[in-house]
Design goal:
This protein has about 270 residues and is of the alpha/beta class. Helix content is about 40%, strand content about 25%.
């Protein structure tokens, strides 16, 4: 690659992660040649990806981490992953919301970030099954009218199950911002929690417009339960860490793609 010495760290790490996942592993010397950067730079990138839990370092290179499809990390663990990307995504997603809208926010750390950017949008009605999202609006008194569904609490502080499903089924909102564990061409949108999969289906049915908010590391991940096809999504808001291959694949299979932060990072 001729221009890769000037790649931003996030973009370079996305390329490395894509290479490791696609080939089932990669060696440091191969990555230095492909990216046209130093051995030390590649090793720093591998260290950063290993801290995020998406690769495992081995002697001379790295291999992908195959996470159990039923494993659901807690809210705090997920919050530590790609915080800058989530901030970019949240800012772009919040810009889609008009004053006076009825919106829904699912559980997740990215939707939590979206909520914080919505505090200045007047006259919102917010439906959520996320305890954390509800707390954002409750702390800023008068910022929005919030409807919090009941239900059983998941490790990521989402409320799911029959009580949540029944509450959501009677509601209708203009746009749903949906956090996901995984997005792929074959499996669509997926989550490790089967009860959450059903609650997410209910949210999708009640929304006029469905916007998935997910950083680039979610692309290609498949969890236990699928709950929507890609053609049921109106837009995906992701970050500028995409590789060219990821961007091409997303553009081919998703009706709308918004790459947050791309202009200022170009």
């Amino acid at each position: 690659m001729s221009d890769n010495q000037n790649l931003l760290a996030e973009q370079r790490r996305a390329l490395i992660l894509d290479e490791v996942r696609r080939r089932g592993g990669a060696r440091v010397n191969e990555l230095t040649r492909k990216l046209n950067v130093s051995d030390m730079t590649v090793r720093r990138d591998l260290d950063a990806l290993a801290r995020q839990g998406v690769i495992e370092k081995v002697h001379g290179g790295a291999v992908p981490v195959v996470e159990a499809r039923t494993h659901e990390p807690g809210f705090e663990a997920k919050s530590a992953l790609a915080p800058g990307a989530k901030e970019d995504i949240a800012r772009a997603a919040a810009a889609m919301v008009a004053p006076g809208s009825a919106i829904a926010l699912s559980g997740g750390t990215t939707t939590y970030a979206v909520a914080r950017f919505l505090l200045d949008v007047p006259d919102l009605t917010v439906v959520t099954n996320s305890v954390r999202v509800a707390d954002v609006f409750h702390a800023a008194k008068g910022a929005a009218t919030v409807v919090l569904t009941g239900g059983v609490r998941t490790p990521s502080d989402a409320l799911v199950g029959p009580v949540a499903d029944q509450a959501i089924a009677s509601l209708h909102f203009d746009v749903l911002f949906l956090g996901v564990h995984g997005v792929s061409v074959e499996a669509g949108l997926s989550t490790p929690n089967l009860a959450e999969a059903e609650t997410n289906r209910r949210l999708i049915r009640s929304a006029r417009r469905v916007v998935v908010v997910a950083d680039h590391t979610k692309w290609g991940t498949v969890a236990l339960g699928s709950f929507a096809r890609l053609d049921e999504v109106d837009a995906l808001v992701t970050d500028a860490g995409l590789s060219d291959e990821m961007r091409a694949e997303m553009t081919e299979h998703l009706p709308g793609l918004v790459v947050a932060g791309a202009a200022e990072k170009a």
